[in-house]
Write a structure and sequence with these properties.
Distance between the termini: 24 Å
Largest sheet: 4 strands, mixed
Shape: globular
Strand order of the largest sheet: 6-3-8-7
Number of strands: 9
């Protein structure tokens, strides 16, 4: 498994899970050391028109990145894999089941306890109606074309992921 950091930017990740570090860690073959699996997961979901599915977070005190547009996702629970966590989070938060999610990248994170963490970003495709999803967290879901992203109040790490995706698809 190859995890590619894309930036040194940080973001705030709400730890509401009971995650315990797993002893079954990915192995970095180049350095010969065990690498801790990131706790956070998020999904970069794109439709056939090239639009991004974004989640407007609640604007309430005490949550990470309040009132910003971001990606759906959340933290791992127990010994859950990143794949299992993102599948559970998408189902819980928006009723989405996307069986063909692929690992895309890893970004640096900043959690409320002032410690560094990472988030695994998955890439997926879906062509449904965002407003029809049964959203259980946040304010709303909406499809946005890439040209609209700079005009939004974005969660910094989500903006970086979209910018990277745009660069990768332009080549």
């Amino acid at each position: 498994m190859l995890l590619l950091p894309i930036t040194d930017q940080t973001y705030c990740w709400r730890r509401h899970s009971t995650h315990r570090p797993s002893t079954d860690r990915p192995f970095n073959k180049q350095e010969g050391i065990a690498v801790q699996e990131p706790n956070g997961t998020a999904a970069l979901i794109i439709n056939s028109a090239g639009e991004y599915l974004l989640h407007l977070r609640d604007n309430i005190e005490g949550i990470c990145d309040p009132g910003t547009w971001s990606l759906l996702g959340g933290g791992r629970e127990g010994d859950e894999t990143a794949e299992a966590a993102i599948a559970r989070e998408l189902k819980e938060e928006a009723g989405l089941v996307l069986p063909e999610l692929k690992r895309y990248t890893v970004v640096s994170a900043h959690v409320p306890a002032n410690t560094s963490d990472q988030i695994t970003i998955f890439l997926g495709r879906w062509d449904g109606e965002a407003h029809a999803l049964p959203l259980t967290e946040g304010v709303m879901l909406h499809w946005f074309p890439a040209a609209m992203i700079p005009r939004l109040v974005m969660c910094p790490w989500a903006n970086v992921v979209i910018e990277q995706h745009q660069r990768n698809t332009a080549t």
